[in-house]
## 1
Amino acid sequence: MSELSIIIPTLNALRYLPACLASIQKSDLPAPSPEVIVIDNGSCDGTRDFLASHSPIPVTWRSNATNTGFSAACNQGAALASGRTLLFLNPDVELDSDCLRLCLEYIRERESVGVLGCRLRFPDGRYQKSAGLMRSFANEFREKRTQRRLRAGDWTRDPLAVCAEPQRVDWLSAAVMFIRADLFRDLGGFDTGFFAYFEDIDLCVRAAKRGRLVVYYPSAGAIHVLGASAGNRARANQIYRASQLRFYEKHHGGLNLLALRVYLGLLRVGDLLRHCSGWLPKSRPLAAPESKEANR
């Protein structure tokens, strides 16, 4: 059995994938090398030819005829994996040379830790939010405000941006997510009811309910392009809202779910009025993420 299996779901991300694989190659992780599995989710940019003939490292890869969704692609890769620890990795991520070693050492030495994430940053070095508190209606408004301040350069509004020690959190981004393979399989993998968005938060919540810690580890780091591919924003918003509603139905209910339904209903009314009159500003989903079309 391998120590680490890296699973990379990709969709039309050939411009990023070579650098992602090269960063794995440059890792200072001691031998043996990690198992690398790439699931191509119906790309039409030459990804299959690259994987077949030009990958800088050995990879196991599968190509789907259509986009099956982020969750399904991750589960497909995990089914092929033999590692004790799984790393779900976006193709537009470049790992720091010590990231794999530091994270594997941390999770190996702490049996209580089930899911682990590292500090992410944009290519220009700015902090990128990749962990946080349980998603609730109130927390999503707070996070949206925090994201605006982070974009303005105010890092002090997010404690995770300045912390130096590992922190217990409620969720981690699947852009770089380590999880014990046995835990992942016990949980049934990602919920494929989430085509994209909220699948990582849902997995972390379910892991915590099993008594396993979800930890943000800022000593390890990686660059994440995030939003480099504009994609179809309207479709991404639609998928985001559907996943957001599914998450609330699974993990909240009551006033939180009612508040979200009212909020989304008001957004739809606003969109309709804007379409009819042309003067209302276009709505955006609560705590909307950057585009993730590069890997979803």
## 2
Amino acid sequence: MITNEKVWRPDNLHDAWILSSKLSDQCCFVSGGTWLRTQWEAGTKEMAPHLISLDKVPEVKEDISLKGQLGQEEVVIGASTTLAEMITNPTLNEKAPVLVKACKNIAGPSIRNQGTIGGNILSCVGDAIPALIVLNAKLMWFNGDELVYQSIEEWLLNQDEVRDILVSIHIPTDKSKGEHYEFAFYTKVGRRESFIPSLVTVAGTGCYRKGEGIFSHVSLSVGGGNVVPIRLPNTEVKIINNEYSSELLYNVLRQVQQDYKPIDDAFGSAAYKRKVAGNLIVSELYRIGGSNHALE
């Protein structure tokens, strides 16, 4: 049994896994460390005696890249990629601008220069998660034997028992939407612009056929505060293949408020957060369809 306190720096996934297995609950993985440091300083999480740094593991540090064949491409992001690197990356700005916008809205420059996308995900309440949900992102993990994929939605339902190493994030680039107008939005509401937990965060993607006023391929997600972000499939059903109208907006507002179940906290009531989430999504739909299709 290893007893001396230490920061370990393995140079491959297998060694990192072996270390974590030997040290068990006496260790934790660290990359940027911004979220962990916040918890340590606030006294909400005890600092582990052993830290396993992943800064020398090449798979976790993989550069953002576009991989696969035409029509089946995906953007691959190493889990140790900093939020600042995400913001300035040309591939992400072209293929996943909604994720770039999410990263721009996290904390301030000093945190974004050090904090990583992997850490934001592993917090389970990170402001990048709603954007990743609507992008149908998959997470690649190393479980000690092999690399396995899991959708971010599936992981969020079972995230209490994380022992695997998050290696990378994979975002498909969907080419099946045709020539219709594609939209993406991300909005974060907090008590001030930065360095404050969000009250409500919403994200959405989809297509809008301007000539017909019809929505399709819609994905919606909501999170914020200490609530694990969720997708809104029932709300999506209210929108997909339906024509833009005042009735549609009303139905969406009512459905969001039924499906989103935040909690009261010191910054806002659950009822207020539900109302904000509904209003944010409806305002985005109005922005997309209102100028092209008069409300009756």
## 3
Amino acid sequence: MQRIDTLSTMARYPRVAREDSCNGKDRMPFRSLQTLALLVLLLLSASPPAANGQDSAGARAVVFFPIRKAINARLTETLRRDIDLAISEHELRFLVIELDTPGGELEASRELAAYLSALDQRGVETFAWVPSGRYAYSGGTLVGLACRTLVMGDNSRIGDVQPIDIFGRELPEKVQTTVRADMRRYSRERGYPVALAEAMVSKDLVVFEVSERDASGIRTRYMTQQQLDDLDLTQRRTLQPRRVVEEGQLLTIDEKEAFDFGFIQHICTSPEQLLLDHGLNGPIVDIDQFLGRQRISGDSEILDFFSGWPSFAKFLLILVAALSLVVELKLPGVGLGSILSLTFFALFLLCGYADGNVGWTEITLFAGGILLMALELFVIPGFGISGIFGLAAIFACLVLAMQPVDAALDLQQLSSSGLLVLGGLGGGLILILLTLHFLPGGNRDGGLISNSSLASDDPAQAAPGFAGRELKPGTRGEVLHDLRPAGKACIDGKILDVVADGGFIEKGMEIEVLVVEGNRVVVRTIPSED
């Protein structure tokens, strides 16, 4: 959680020595200035300071919270945390939930709807807005009806709240009963037609539009077939029923039907029109601006695509990244494995950022880990402190990338995230080792680096113009540049590209030729005579 700094105004007054009565005529103007300065100070202290780019009446700001993906438990928890913070620390009063969602998890949607419905008791006026050309089906409709006011744009739709499983199959009646109860409750609280709300959940309901005349004129209401049948004959004769929902269909309505049925009072095509139609005049801000958060900018459509990926998909990204690293060890100098590994790690971090889990801390850890690993590989020989700290930084980054940025760390979630990251990295290593061991031609000695020789008994395999093809094992030379393991050395008066047998040889060391494999000269340090 970031702290929000406010500006304060201070006034300083010079100390004035008491004057004697003979200078009384000069004291009156100064006393007037003192009085004027005191009035200015009182006016400044009476005006609350501005924060986060809002005006002095920050409580009048209209805060937008977009839901542009499937509703899940993580999204619900994020919204609850942000809204609770906005209420407790920033006096949130007006909240607009922008809905563009196909629905989502049943329990997460019900929990989110119940939370938004209860915001009335905390002094927050809630609006659900379905922008033009968008839709809020299933759990999105449930959330929309739970808000105090529902607003829709042109060519927008709501409805189809029937609970289904991941295969699209209808859930049992006891589950539908629960959802219908929620829809009835929110419809009664907000004054929506209850029968039509229930028809969005169950397709076996038939709903009639009933017109009846009373003392105030003609009144229209909506009744199910069962409610109509329960009326006595005298009451039914005074009614003029018209069937509006047929049996076997789930009710889905557009903005014009929603207006005619009484679900909405205004059709708003923009946030500005929403504020105008509902008498709001505060600034329009998103939740991050309202909370004073500085977040990395990004294209919303791209982020929407990467948001909400399940944990298993993120596990696969880490697994493939680990596999790519092993490929780099098997094919040194090619760079393909490193590129693939960085690509999949970047996709993992992008998914975390889209879910609100990656900030500058995680990016700094990842960049620092890569830098330390590069130092270990290209600057500092061997595997030491830089490599250990680099791996630790990357591991910490991957674990934190599965935690919400603005929430306190949850030890249980940290442990599960750590196991997932360990499983992905370790699983990639084990999988590639098994593959190398069992595939034909694989390295069966269990090592990551193949020990097979490229040596040939046919000297013609070396290119005719290769300067080192006449070298014999034991020919001595000197290293011109550090061998990591490849580099340049001067052997028998010729500057050649060589490969160190031991993995690393420092510049200036005396070496000898171990073997010539085609165009490849393998060298080693000269063994001590001890």
## 4
Amino acid sequence: MDRDVMTLDVQEELLVLAPLQKLAAATRLLNSTLSLEEKVQRVTEMVGAMVGAQQAVTHLTFSSSPIPPLTTAWFSEPREAAEAHLRRLADAPLCALVCQKNEVLRLTQAELEVHPAWQPLERLPGLPGWLAVPLTRQDGQNSGFLQVSGKEGGAFTPQDEAILYQLAQMLSLAAENTRLVRSEQNARQVAETLRVASLALTQNLDLGDVLETLLDYLGWIVPYDAASVLLREGSSMVVVRALRSYEENATALSQGHSFQVDATPILEELFANQRSVLIPNTQVHPVWSHSVEGGKGHSWLGVPLLSEGETIGLCAVEKGETNFFTEEHLRLVEALAAQTEVAIRNARLFEALRLRATELEALVEVSTALRAARAVEEMLPIFLQKAAAIVGATLGTIYLQEPETNQLVARGWYPPHPELLGLHQHPNAHVAEQVFQTGEIAICRDGLDVWADLLPARQSGLEMLHSTISLPLRTLESIVGLMHLALPQEREFTEVEVRLLTGLAEMAGNSLHRAVLYEQTEQRLHRLAALRTIDRAITTSLDLLTPLEVLLDQLRIQLRVDAADILLFDPNSNQMECVAWHGFRTERLAEPRFPLGDDVGSRAIIERRLIAIPQIQLGQAPPSRAALWLTEDFTTYFSVPLIAMGQIRGVLEVFHRTPLHPDAEWIDFLEALAGQAAIAIDNALLFENLQRSNLELSQAYDATIAGWARALDLRDEGTRGHSDRVTEMTMQLARALGLKEADLLHVRRGALLHDIGKMGIPDGILLKPGPLTQEEREIMELHPGYAYEMLLPIAFLRLALDIPYCHHEKWDGTGYPRGLKGEEIPLAARMFAVVDVWDALRSDRPYRKAWLEERVRDHIRSLAGTHFDGRVVDVFLKIQVDE
């Protein structure tokens, strides 16, 4: 009996010791170096064996920790289908009740089936008995449960509950220790990540790289399926500037996608409050609103990016499962966002500086290029090429205002279109007119209407022009023109592009205005110089053609026209005659004379006004010149009447082969040239008339002188023909001695009048057949003085006095009337003295016969150096020998 009792006591002791040994083994297991997951799995298996259960489940949660929840199941026999269901016990209402109350729950099969929180698992056999023990942290908070079911032989006992409770406490402690270790490790890892991220963010000055770096490091500390960075643009718009997405269920976004803040409630709340937002389940959140379709219920976390008290954007992360993100996740994203805010501000400052440097560089490039450009035509391509390059424009133009007409005229095109230069802005060009009047930039996404007002109706390719920007070209005082640029596609012009173009337009306005003023001043100076050149040609030329040629040459240069001509009008024959022309393709004008008629040139004469024809018609040319006009391919025509002293002198015609739109100064200069041409023609006619009058007067003078000479010959029969002979020989001698043609006229007149003084000598002395007495000779020697007195008052004969007054002077000074000697005697008188003696000795006289030529030659030679100039004698005698 004692042995039986003793045996029973041993068995009971062994039953008590066996669970204790297993608990000790569980303690050693939980204190081992195995991972928490392995520990939980092994403990779950040990629980089933220790209490005789058919299945066991352990569920661990880690609040405020990056460690994900852990659920482990064990079955006495493999049940793959059942395992999947049992793993869902973590979310079952009965287990949730244990966690919520943080109390042990032990139920028999009957109690289990009637419990209100029980939801039987499908396709599973009945599991008698059900026991669950909460896992509790040291702070008393629930961290999961340890649950068993399917007790072999009946319901679970209090002893089973005590064993399970003890294991739960040990497992809770091990899990808490693991959480603390991992939290510390994770904190160190996060701190290091944040430190490295801070370095990476602050060392990068490219905004795109900064945002990509943010998403990289964000993924290391906060698990996400999708993340995005949205930055504010303007007052009410945010734009996606960086994006990562790994889940198809995440909200559908795209790079560059924009949101209106006030149209998206969650963004409006975040921007208004400047506080982070954590949404465990977007489907049930009261203010969540999908801005784009896509996605199911998920966790969403958004953190505002602040800079100097202003919300500049937000960083958002998503997870495709609900209730995923924790406050710890929120804190980590905020920490990284705070570092990113500084990096974004630095990147934006750097970008602003870089853009400003780019702007300055562009302006410096333009300014450098402008140094070599003085004229407007040289500046316009520089501005248009640079502006087109900034925005990628395929067409651009600059219209400048004409000061005289206040009209906007096309002065430059990109690419070059010479045929479009000079176009006037359409009067109904509303957009361009609005920009010019208000000075405000106009941007049109569809620029067709703008260009339809700027280009001819027949111009092709308008459908290829899309987004267009129109900018005013302004000076400090006014707007002087417009610049239009068209893109080949529809898109918005960026803030940087608009700022660059604005700066370029301001530079263009000032530069072009200065260039226009310089050109106008230079043009006026050139035109004044041209008028002076023409004046000089008129005043220094005695013929008509020379000044007209100079005038036409200056006209084509200064007015930049292709051709011009001058027609003279003959009022007597009522005909027009082309006397000068420049720039025609034909060598000379066909039929230069034609009658006054109904053509445009005749209209200028008849109406006495300028005629302007912007488009020449063939019928407007005189019939004789119609073929010429057609051959020359002229487009534009101007004609100005040439009027001098109220008389029509002709017409100045100007031709051009492309359309002309002259300003008021151009017209004024054309009319000034017409006035110069009229003066040139009038001067030529006056000079021609004067020449005719002078010729007639000179002929009358010469006839009078010849008459006086014949009268002297008739008075003295002995000297008949003497004046003509000595005049002819004296002219020969003068030419041989090299006298100028201008002097020969006076020599001739002096020779004819050499004895004009004898008209004062009485006939008794002049015609006396015999020798003169001394008294008579003295009277005879008075005739040179009489000649001087007679001819000196006559201005045109004053230069002819040398022969009548001095032809009786002698080389040795013994002559009369003044006793001149050597070269004191005028050369004309020295020549005539030799000729006079030669002719006198070679002619018969009442008191003697003529000498032989040889005797006369010897006599004259003998008087060389005394009576005559020896050089004159030699030349004269040589002429006689040659003859």
